[in-house]
Write a structure and sequence with these properties.
single chain; alpha+beta; nine-stranded mixed sheet; four-stranded antiparallel sheet; globular; N(4)-(Beta-N-acetylglucosaminyl)-L-asparaginase; Ntn_hydrolases_N; Peptidase_T2
């Protein structure tokens, strides 16, 4: 049995290649890292990697993580500047016994010492988005905090090993040095090959309040199906935030157990995810929540064409 699941339509091309690799017997660890790296490399995805949206200072600070479900080893970077493929740096850090979570200048120095490639990650198109968003929000006295789509990918290989990897440029116009849930083990990701894995996307400040990914895996270990675990965690966290904090941001998750069964949950209208397995053909699903349960259906050609047109559309200056 093999399987792979990812947050957002932007993961489709990377998942497609890694699904073929998993079907051919390749390891989950390299498959998820390669799939995330493919998203990082595509300049039109403005919330991940090359072309990611900048902080309020105009810098692109990237976060990424990797976790091996066999050993529970993990590596993560935060606020990494101008290094290509942060997920590969996180993967390398997972092989370190200590110092496996590095941020800022320390993360950059370690990456360069290890031979990772320096690359300017801010693109002109990202700056056009930045200026447009400023006009739409700051110039009108509105909050700029929008646009926070993390790519998170879970893989299960034919040997029964599981891995998870994440990557994001984080909250748009975030403060310099801000970290969300994506590089934080237990919140943005968690993986245990004896149980399953989960990964999250949305408002990191709220997702971290529920240790979201760990809690989903824990509930799967207690006997819940992936869908039950995902729905119950997202619903309960939103209810708790609303009752005790007064508001709840976007909360979306995907998960998979060691048998290749998957689940997804969200509290927003337009959450998409990609999944493929030995029994599930490669499919992009569109998910939304009705009452306390998430419902999802495969997207159609019209949806796919609209998505492609949207990410390629010229930006009005």
């Amino acid at each position: 049995m093999w399987g792979i699941i990812a947050t957002w339509r932007m993961a489709l091309e990377g998942v497609s290649e890694s699904a073929s690799a998993l079907a051919a017997g390749k390891a989950a660890s390299t498959s998820v890292v390669d799939a995330v790296a493919a998203v990082e490399d595509f300049p039109l995805y403005k919330s991940v990697g090359f072309g990611g949206l900048p902080t309020e200072n105009g810098d692109v600070e990237l976060d990424a993580a990797f976790m091996d479900g066999d050993t529970l080893a993990f590596g993560a970077v935060g606020n990494l500047v101008d290094i290509a493929n942060p997920v590969r740096v996180a993967h390398a850090l997972s092989r370190q016994r200590y110092n496996c979570l590095l941020v800022g200048q320390g993360a950059r120095e370690w990456a360069l010492e290890q031979g990772f490639r320096e690359k300017t990650m801010l693109t002109e198109r990202a700056m056009q988005h930045y200026r447009k968003r400023c006009r739409e929000t700051l110039d009108k006295g509105l909050s700029p905090y929008d646009g926070h789509d993390t790519v998170g990918i879970i893989g299960l290989d034919r040997h029964g090993s599981m891995s998870v990897a994440t990557s994001t440029s984080g909250l748009f116009m975030k403060k310099r040095g801000r970290l969300g849930d994506s590089p934080i083990m237990g919140s943005g990701f968690y993986c245990d090959s004896e149980v399953g894995a989960a990964t999250a996307t949305g408002v990191g400040e709220d997702l971290m309040k529920g240790c979201t990914s760990y809690e989903i895996v824990r509930r799967m270990a207690d006997g819940m199906s992936p869908q039950q675990a995902a729905d119950s965690v997202v619903c309960e966290l939103e209810d708790r935030l609303m009752s005790r904090f007064g508001r709840a941001g976007d909360l979306s998750v995907v998960c998979m157990n060691r048998r290749g069964e998957f689940g997804a949950a969200t509290n927003i209208k337009t959450f998409s995810f990609v999944v493929a397995s030995e029994t599930q053909p490669l499919t992009v699903f569109r998910a939304d929540r009705l009452r306390e349960k998430t419902h999802y259906v495969p997207v159609d050609d019209e949806w796919m064409q609209a998505y492609a047109a949207r990410i390629r559309a010229p930006i009005e200056e």
